[in-house]
Amino acid sequence: MGHYRGADGTREDGDMSQRTIKVLSVIDGAPAHGAPGGEFRSTNPARTKEIVAEVSLADAETFVTACRAARTAQREWAATPAPLRGRAIAYAGRLVEANSEALARIMVREIGKPYREALGEVREIVDTCDFFLGEGRRLYGQTVPSEMPDKQLFTYRNPVGVAAIITAGNFPVAVPAWYIVPALLTGNAVVWKPAEYSAAIGLALHQVFARAGIPAGVLNVVFADGPATFAGLEQALAGGVVDKVGFTGSSAVGSTIGELCGRHLQSPCLELGGKNPMVVTPSANLDLAVEGALFAGFGTAGQRCTSLGTAIVHRDVHDEFLRRFTAATEAAAVGDPFEDVLYGPMINERFAERYEGYLGWIADHHRVSGSTAVGRISSGDPRGGFVGDPDAGLFYHPAIVDGVRPDDKLFSQETFGPVVGVTAYQTLDEAIELANAPGYGLSAAIYTSDPQDVFAYRSGIGAGMVSVNNSTSGAEAHLPFGGNGKSGNGGRLSGQWVLDQFTRWQSMNWDHSGRLQKAQLDVAEPVPDLDFRLPE
């Protein structure tokens, strides 16, 4: 596996995907020694007795220090020609590609994502870097015609300055890359705060990017818990050393961060939770719909912001869809994420405990299927075909809950875990109303063979992303990603659309006439003959 530079700046032999990793924040290219915010142990959720990382947590002042360092480094980075910044991004992509298997293995150990999915997530960083290499030569402004002679008008994209990026751990490298790559490409410096429970993979990604030719201080990583991060962000905003905030996480925390940024007249980029609907029409290919529901509902143990929340199925096909969905779920492999499984464990104890609370929302009018039990998989409550040792980790039975109603919490609230609700509808208008009812607006899917259904659904749904005959999960690196309502404030990541998050438009007018020309006042007018009529 070669050599990796440890968090203390020394070189360490060995495989980061096997040993316990010591994690320190890195500010201005140097490790931040000490643990003013305390210590955190990141454990393997598939083998909870295995410590993956020992994390030295920062405090609020450390976060502010990182923002100040970023402010100092940003000026020179912004002056670097954009095509050269694009080359650094390209080198980062090549390094990620070369280290893809090592990164994937760390991810599997730390958050329990199945190895094949982890490789796919790493690939998304490569795709993102590939896209933004070219954007370094396409940060176009415009030349605009003036209404007056001897005057030129221009527009320019300028970097915002310092971006504070706070990300969740369910997609611990792909989603951060959606922010970090375009922020760096457009000339910003970044302070990245990963989730503390995904600190090992966060440190590994930072190490890879740091070797791509990105100067010290331009990309800083700070490991801290939620309260310290919020306090640090509050101080950094008040001190004028953060110009843009990007946050991926829960709707509740996103709302708080949005309120904080609003006090400083800043508009954050918020990518929040989802209660993603999937409508199954009478003309749908049911086998395809079941395949999509299985992947979107239970892939990553239902711990995606785009996970399927509720399948809204036409009454004529409801029973058959449910029968096939149940059979597919019962047959799905669950267990050790290094094996060929649909999903592995919950990310950590906190997520597992919260999920058990969601299972308490199952009521008497619900019908549950999909496994041999509900709740944690163990030797006492086994699941047929389980791969590995169920007692070693945080594994949970998949649950299909039929008969959910709009007034059920299972219908209206995000449920981060392997549970999918099912309900029935009669008309497409009713289905759209049900799909919009929870108030989220991230991803939505429809399975149909009728083009009229497709366009009616697209125009009626409030989601930022719509899939047709495809699942609610699965984003390509060059399409806009983001939601509305409780899923976000309308910001978009990925593709060219994210450039507006990390740049500000500046207009310039250049009058070379040698005299003061006043817009709207000193403007020549054509002389029309508006009374002219052709002879009859």
Q: What oligomeric state is this?
A: single chain
Secondary-structure-based class equals: alpha/beta
Number of beta-strand segments: 22
- Strand numbers in spatial order across the main sheet: 17-18-19-16-15-20-21
Low-confidence stretches: 1-14
**Annotation field: number of helices:** 15
The main β sheet shows up as: 7 strands, mixed
Query: What is the averaged pLDDT score?
Result: 94
Cα radius of gyration in angstroms: 26 Å
Describe the structure.
The protein is α/β, with parallel strands linked by helices. It contains 15 helices and 22 strands. A seven-stranded mixed sheet has the order 17-18-19-16-15-20-21, sandwiched between helices. A five-stranded parallel sheet has the order 12-11-10-13-14, sandwiched between helices. Helix 6 links the parallel strand 11 and strand 12 (219-221). The termini are far apart.
List the helices and strands and how they pair.
Blueprint lengths: L2 E3 L5 E3 L7 E3 L1 E3 L2 E3 L6 E6 L2 E10 L3 H20 L2 H17 L1 H12 L3 H21 L6 E3 L6 E9 L2 E5 L7 H12 L3 E5 L5 H12 L8 E3 L4 H13 L5 E5 L2 H13 L5 E3 L4 E5 L5 H13 L9 E7 H17 L17 H11 L7 E3 L29 E4 L6 H4 L6 E7 L2 H9 L6 E5 L3 H10 L4 E4 L30 H4 E9 L25
Parallel strand pairs: 3-7, 10-11, 10-13, 11-12, 13-14, 15-16, 15-20, 16-19, 18-19, 20-21
Antiparallel strand pairs: 1-2, 4-5, 6-7, 8-9, 9-22, 17-18
Helix pairs in contact: 1-7, 2-4, 2-6, 3-4, 3-6, 4-5, 9-10, 13-14
